[in-house]
Amino acid sequence: MDFNVKKLVRDAGTALSRVVQLTEEKLGTSEKTELDAHFENLAERSDTTKLWTEKILRDTEAVLTPNPGNRVEDFLFDKIEKKRPNRLSNLEYLGLDMMEAGNDFGPGTSYGNALIKVGQCQQRLGQSERDFITAANHCYITPLRKFLDGEMKTIIKERSLLESKRLDLDACKNRLRKARSMQGQQNKEGVSPEVLLEQAEKDLRVAQSEFDRQAEITKLLLEGISSSHAGHLRCLQEFAETQVRYHAQCHQIMQDLQRELGSLSLTTPGAAPYQPLVPQSTDSGTTVQNGLQRARVLCDYDAKDATELSLMVDEVILVQEISEDEQDYLMGERGNQKGKVPKAFLEMLAF
């Protein structure tokens, strides 16, 4: 392999002089060209945007893919442009095991049938979760990562180049000051001070021009952060809407399961009555929507005919008034079961 020794020496000398220059600036023994306040504000906003975008991106990825090992694996597959593995979610594994257990116990048994239904529900929840993760990656994760890998990297590169131009400019200013201080003195290299001064002034003009041009380019890129924020806002809105749809789907799936389990308790001999959860009201009192109230059964009650509802001690049911003329009975509900129940066997509950 061929090495350009002169270039290596020159680069090493430049790097060393930069270190010395930065050290002198830190110590206050050398002047530093300062950028205007507007530019500094833009640069600070860019740094803040980069910091929080990276953090939010990491947090969102951790929410969508909790397993760090899976995140690393997905990252590697993306880098080599290979399709990600189609791994099952924890909900889907739970659903599969529940359905397998239900089939093992027997679909004809109450417990086996319920396991299969709940397992199928977990499968649907897992699929909804998978769809949500895919949509969230598309509408939120991908744009943020594209911003960091594209626009933000360009800004960092141009700011680094601007800093290099700034150091060149300050070095030229130092050489010019040195050349002016040497006016009237004999140069050891035999070059007249006037020639050195003229060369230093020329180098300064070139360095100032390059610095100003780079500063303008960098400033335009930094001002583009406002447009990036607007784009991120749209992505955030899409992410929130995707999350709303996901939770609505999950809610609907669980409501369907609740109805199925309520129906199962009616058709399965010997099965304990299923008590669906009733959303609590924030208002004081016992009244809920549609005039229903919660009530706890004080003791067992056997229905006298098909119009009544049998009760088990300590179970909680929903009740409502039948009519003004009916003072001793209420209409009770347990899942899909309905029937008259005696008031004397009930204790009204507050929400």
TrEMBL record:
Keywords of the record: SH3 domain
GO BP of this protein: membrane organization
A Pfam family assignment: BAR
Residue ranges of every copy of the BAR domain listed in the record: 24-270
Source species: Gryllus longicercus
Protein name: Endophilin-A
Domain SH3 positions: 290-351
CDD domains: BAR_Endophilin_B, SH3_Endophilin_B
InterPro entries cross-referenced by the UniProt entry: AH/BAR_dom_sf, BAR_dom, Endophilin_SH3RF, SH3-like_dom_sf, SH3_domain
